[in-house]
Amino acid sequence: MNIKELFESPKFIVFFSMALNIILILIGYIWFDHNYIHLELSALLLLSLLLGPYSVLGFTIAELLYWILVLDMSNATVIILSFSSILVLGIMPWKLWYMLKSKRGFEIPNMNSFYSFAKIIIIVLFMILQTYIFSHQIFDEIFGLSLETYYMIFILGLILLVLGMGLAGRFNISVYAPKQIKKIMPDRIYDLSFVLAIILSIITINNPNYTNLFLILILFAIFLIKPLDEDVFKINNTQKLTIFYKAFVSIFIILIIIPTFLLFSLTALGIYEHGIASEFLNYLVLLARFFLAILIPLSIYMYFLEKQVINPIDQLSAYLYEEINDDVDFDNLVNNLNSITVNNEIRSLSESLLDMKKEFVDYSANLLDVTKEKERYETELKLAHEIQYSMIPTDFEKFNANKNISLWGFMKAAHDVGGDFYDYFKIDDENIGFVIGDVSGKGVSTTLIMIKAMTLIRDYITYYSDLSYAAYEVNNELCKDNVKELFVGCLLGKLNTKTGKFTYVNAGHRKPLIRQNDGNFEFMKDKPGLLLAGMENMHYEEHTIHIKPNDTLFLYTDGVTYANNGNDIFYGERNLQKILNQNKDNELSTIIKSIEEDINKFCDNKELSDDIAMLILKME
């Protein structure tokens, strides 16, 4: 379990808060006289805002144990009221944060804007006021601390809070996410209880008593159970460190942290004659006064910093990240940059970046057009490739089952897509149909014609018993709207698997080879007809032969015989016939594989110059 997951566990938060309380108590005893300063109280603001009510509960339990076991407190009334006051007042910063909504909506506790800074300062002042009230009657009986000491404690608390936010952002620790509470009374009662608690607190400043303090706690407790706005539960609970936060930390270090540790170091080295506790405590009280004195100037400066520097930089960054596709987008960018009305270096930077952006936009527009066209073409090729290969059947073993024939096929495109194809299909219980062909040209349009031709051939072979009619109809259909004048050379056939009757039409295709009577493969002698899609109303001749058991028919496209070795020497019909006869007694798949390997060897494994398709059939 990593550190982020640990801080998402309520049990871990409780024990972590108890441990932090104990550690700060020990530090207070080791470095200071604990009667002068109760250092653990400075962690309450950090725990409440970042880790929520569970952390306050753990802190309060540890504090109660400290009072009873170490300070030996026995006054039950004081202990109970003190325990309740720390618990209720400790949760109040967390509740107040999520009740105050900013222009950007609800956010986790942060120091990322002037509004967030102002909210935290208000919460700190609220805690100082309530501490002042309760210290007179309750806390002084336990701690015996002065009001100025409480100022100092909350200044230390503010330092811890800022550091805690930085650590949460650095280690990606999630801030405690609020949970919804069931509404049990009207909103006005919750708000009224808070107002009455504040009024009663002011009245009680100079005359505190247990009754008033008890009523204040009850009224605040009622306010604490007010349900939060639904939008609170949609916020991102991961701390983000912005420029404002980093600027504030820099100022904070200069004004508070560096002088504090510098004085501590001098005291520890013995430069001051007073003890560490008294000297350091006096300095911290003075530092608290100093911080309160500069609070208004600091707030004004932070407001100016946000309006004149941080917000313009954020706007500039956001505008420059916007995508620009055309002149309208660029005009919008110009208007947005002109809306940055500051008169400083940021304005000059904005104008310079605008000039650069214009040049970049023109270049990007041209590049975008080229890229889009390339991507469109590549997408079309990829789609055509997938379609082409999905149309070519490869279920040979399944198709061969329970039939008197065996067949095997192979197709490989020379480029992303091609025009070579083969197909086989069942016509009825006795007849199968098949085709092998080659579409002229390359690219997506070739693949589309291939798909159309395969679909038409399958339909018309199934419909017509005479293949010459089928070829006639397919030719006329392919001639329609053949704007790019692509042609299809193919051989379509039909085989009766029981009688061995083989009828076929050769429409401008390569002559097939046949092996009969256990002899060698020989080229068939029939003269091919005209290519499909060349001219309408062309008549084709149907040929018939009989294939006996063990006879084998081999069909191929011209990519086989036209395979080029790079020296303008083609593979040719002789090499094809030779490799077929060398493997004539092998399995059909082995014969196909042997031809493929022989072509690759002939071409020295170079890229094919043309598509290849092969189909082989054998009567069993």
Give a verbal description of the structure:
The chain is α+β, with helices and mostly antiparallel strands and 620 residues long. The chain is built from 20 helices and 10 strands. It has helices at residues 3-6, 10-31, 44-51, 53-69, 76-99, 114-142, 147-170, 187-204, 210-224, 243-268, 276-293, 295-321, 327-338, 345-391, 396-400, 444-463, 467-479, 558-561, 572-582, 588-602, and strands spanning 405-412, 420-426, 431-439, 488-496, 501-507, 513-515, 521-523, 543-546, 552-556, 612-619. The strands form 2 sheets. The chain has a 5-stranded antiparallel β-sheet with strand order 1-10-9-6-7. The longest helix has 47 residues, at 345-391. It is elongated, with a radius of gyration of 44 Å.
Question: Over the alpha carbons, how many angstroms does the gyration radius reach?
Answer: 44 Å
How much strand content do the residues show?
5-15%
Provide the residue-averaged pLDDT. Answer: 82
Distance between the termini: 67 Å
Looking at the chains present, what oligomeric state does this protein adopt?
single chain
Strand order of the largest sheet: 1-10-9-6-7
Instruction: Give the SSE string.
Output: HHHHHHHHHHHHHHHEEEHHEEEEEEHHHE
- Taken from the alpha-carbon principal axes, the silhouette is elongated
Q: Runs with pLDDT <50, length 5+?
A: 273-277
DSSP helical segment count: 20
Major sheet, described briefly? 5 strands, antiparallel
Helix fraction bin: 55-70%
* Count of individual beta strands: 10
**Structural class assignment:** alpha+beta
